[in-house]
Amino acid sequence: MNFRTDLALERHESVKEKDLAGVKLEVKECKSIKISNITVLDERGERALGKKKGRYITAELPSLEKSADMLEDWGGVLSEEIRGLLPEAEGTVLVVGLGNRDITPDALGPECISLLLATRHIKGELAESVGLSSLRSVAGIVPGVLGNTGIETAEILKGIVAQIKPSAVIVIDALAARSLERLGNTVQLCDTGVSPGSGVGNKRKSIDVDFLGVPVIAIGVPTVVDGITVALDVIEAGGVELSEEKKRDILRGEKGMMVTPKEIDLMIKRASRLLALAVNMALQPSMEAQEIMAIVG
How far is CA 212 from CA 4, 158, 178, 199, 204, in A? Predict the structure, then answer.
C-alpha cells in the first residue's frame, strides 16, 4: 500500500525487501546528521521505489526548532552534498524557490530565495570594488504558483533558462512526508528534478533536465503529512490492527487533508535559513559561513 510521501528514504523503508534489485543504499553520519544516499540504478529500481533513476540523499537532523546554534555546522555538511550533485564548478546557477509565501507550510522556497546571495548582476569594476570578483554567478527567482500566474512554473523556468543559460538549476520546495517524526528535521537532495505539488496530490509539469535542458538539483524539507496517514497511525498505536484491505478502503475515502505542526512558522524560518546557508556555501566555497550570513542577513 502506497502512502503519500516525497522522500525516497521512506519509500525504501516501506519495502519489505531491504536488498532491492536496482537500488543501492549507503549510510554515513557527520556532525550528528545521518545521511542516507540512495541511488536508483535502473528500471528495476524505478519500479521498486516509484522514483526516477538518479541519486537521492536524505539528511536526518535533530530538531531544527531546538538546535538553532548548529545551523552553521549543518549548513557546511549539506553544502558538501549539494556540491557533489552539481555537474560543473563554473557557470551561472539559477536557484528557484517554489511555493506560496502566503501559505506557511508552502513558503520554504520563497523564504530561501530571500536569503540567497545573488551575484549575477555584480560584474566588472563593481565586482572588484566590493571584493566579489571571484564569486560564482548566481541568480534567484520565485516564480509564484499556477493559481496566481496562470502559467506552469516549468514553462516560466524554461524561458528564464533559455535567456540566461545557466549551467545548472537548483529548485527548493516544501515536501510531504509519511511520518510526523520527519517534519522539519529531514532534508532531501536529488539530481532528478521535481514535480511541484506531487506530494499533496496536485502534480504539475516536471522541472527536470528533460524539460529544461540543463541539470536540475532538487532540495526540500517535509512540512506536511497526509491527514489519513496520521489517523491510521493513531488507530494502530491504540492497539487496533487493520487489514491491508481495510486500510485501502480508508485511503479510498480520504479527502486529501494535510497536517502540519503548530510550530510551522519557526520550522520554516529555521529550515529556510539552513537551506539558504547550505546553497550559498555550496556555490561560494571561498567564503566562510559567517561572511555569507553577514551579507544576506
Answer: 27, 5, 29, 21, 15
